[in-house]
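The methods section describes the discrete structure representation at length, but only in general terms. What matters is that the chain and its backbone geometry are given together, residue for residue. Nothing conveys this as quickly as seeing an actual entry. For illustration, here is how one protein appears when written out as sequence plus structure tokens:
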Amino acid sequence: MLHITGGFAVSELSSNFFSVAMFEESMSGQARDQIGDWVLRAGIALAFLLFGFDKFPSGLDTQWVRFFDQVGVGQWFRYLTGIVEVTGAALVLFPLTSRIGIAILTATMAVASVIHIFVVHQPTNAIITGGLCLGLIASWRRMRRN
């Protein structure tokens, strides 16, 4: 069958061939998914490395010292949270351990949301940690699918 497209006569066979050949690489998803996964993992790792290392300075005027004073468990919990975030970030970087790292970071953000809502009584701050938690769940599902 002959189709006229853009002023050119194209047979159905050649039309299907060109459309399939043109988009075959982008539809296969192999290269795009690998690059996308690396970018996603690098972004998550960078963010949580920064979040984690930000918890280690001990000046009395730092926001994390004040926040963990409000939590009331002690400053050891601040250090533990920083270690967990840095460890999770490091695990996210490697494909074999990325799901474990994302699971650790997701649990950390879920607990942070609960602490913001029920312990510190600042539910608006839980929007940020809750959003991070949902973003981590979405990225875990993406990696699980691939």
